[in-house]
Amino acid sequence: MGVTLTWLGHGGWSMNDGERDILLDPFLAECPTANVAAADIAADFILVSHGHFDHVADVSAIANRTGATVVAIFEIAQWLANNHQVKNTIGMNIGGGVSLPFGHVKMTQAFHSSQLPDGSYGGEPAGFLVTVGDKRIYFACDTGLFSDMQLIGSVGIELAVLPIGDLFTMGPEDSLAAIRLIKPKRVAPAHYNTWPPIEQDAAAWARQVREQTASEPIVPAVGESIEL
Fold first, then answer.
1. Across the strands, what pairs with 92?
2. To the nearest whole number, what is the mean pLDDT of the chain?
3. 223 domain-assigned
4. Within 13 Å of residue 52, how many CA atoms lie on the same side as its CB?
5. pTM for the whole thing?
6. pLDDT tens for residues 195-211?
7. How many CA atoms lie within 13 A of 185 on its CB side?
8. Is residue 75 domain-resident?
9. Which of 9, 66, 74, 152 qualifies as a FRET site for 39, CA 20 to 30 Å off?
């Protein structure tokens, strides 16, 4: 089973398994680099990593329009249902997994914060290990470097998506350490170049990945896809 991943800009991604559209942290309406509108994007499932506005701002509008099921930490799933009338939610927690029509989703730890836009408690921040067919994709999401990334990578990762923007997440240098821990076949950057404080030279990062790790870097433009 093949998987197509498309970078939506910032921390957002779209996945398609040939039948279903799965979004991760769609941030479109207010994202200066997005090239697709929240009103136009397709979704059957939406994965939400944490509560910050640049990860949840468009979730309820997309879910309510499409009927998509939102998968998130329990507190965010409850907040979306109670405050934004999202009908289909799956609340889970760190270390838990759920089987869905497209495959399996495991919620991994992340080191970050997770306050929701209205000040509500957003539970713990998370990453996701997504298995589709024989492909495992690790979305670290918003996080700093942590040594247990080695355990996450021990299952064999086809593609790891890591933040490189620095300031709010790990930067390029720590991402290289993360790659050496995870040992993915391929790695893609995210959460950079949205605003000046998180601008990075992704081409320079890719050169360092090739020189210092055994993983192959892929640097898609916004709207560009990766085939797995």
1. 73
2. 97
3. no
4. 19
5. 0.98
6. 999 999 999 999 999 99
7. 9
8. yes
9. 74
pLDDT at 2: 86
Q: How far apart are CA 90 and CA 178, in angstroms?
A: 29
Per DSSP, helices labelled H in the chain are 53-56, 59-66, 74-84, 149-153, 172-182, 202-212
- 95: tokens are 């270390």
Size of the chain, expressed as the number of residues it contains: 228
**Mean pLDDT for the stretch of residues 59-67:** 98
> What is the rounded CA–CA span in Å between residue 26 and residue 70?
12
Q: Cβ contacts of residue 173 below 8 Å, gap of 6+?
A: none
Count of structural domains, the chain? 1
Cα atoms in the Cβ-side hemisphere of radius 13 Å centred on 98: 17
Q: Which domain holds residue 176?
A: 4-216
We report the CATH number of the domain holding residue 113 as 3.60.15.10
**CA 36 and chain centroid, separation:** 17
Q: Quick one: pLDDT band at residue 131, thresholds 50, 70, 90?
A: very high
